[in-house]
Fold this sequence. Notes:
With 181 residues, the chain is α/β, with parallel strands linked by helices.
Amino acid sequence: MQNIILVGMPGSGKSTLGRTLAKALSYHFIDTDDVIMETYHKNLMQLIEANGTEGFIELEGNVIQSIHTNRAVISTGGSAVYHEKAMQYLKSTGMVVYLHHAISDIASRVGNMVTRGVICRSGCLTLRDIYAERRPLYEKYADLTVDLSGCSVRQCNERLINAVKGCLGTQCNDYREEGCV
């Protein structure tokens, strides 16, 4: 059985929705941010400060490539898409699902980007800059895009579970319905 790998912006629900998805599929759940912090015994911000942006991306990529599992929902850090080899590895282990949200939805959830440990390669100053930089990468790696714009947590859970269950074992591209407004 394949893994389900969740990618998306900080605040997109990769961890929250991932746990519910794992339970619904009877898969186990792995949060790569937790694996990184457990491996290095530091929080993400400390690791970014100690290693710099590129060093952190390399560290994150190496940790991701060390995860060997099956039948898991894997929640990646939002910056995982910066590491080509890590993303190719994840794609080889399962289906990559991009949790797409409108930027306004993300902005209402994120909080302080610095203390959260959010990085950007091109020196982004705003959440909108990070979104513009990362969105093409999320779309590049996604086997399935689930548009969750305007959804409540309950609606997001239902939409994600239905989309993933509908795609397991088949070729899927996008799961787009009317917005959840």
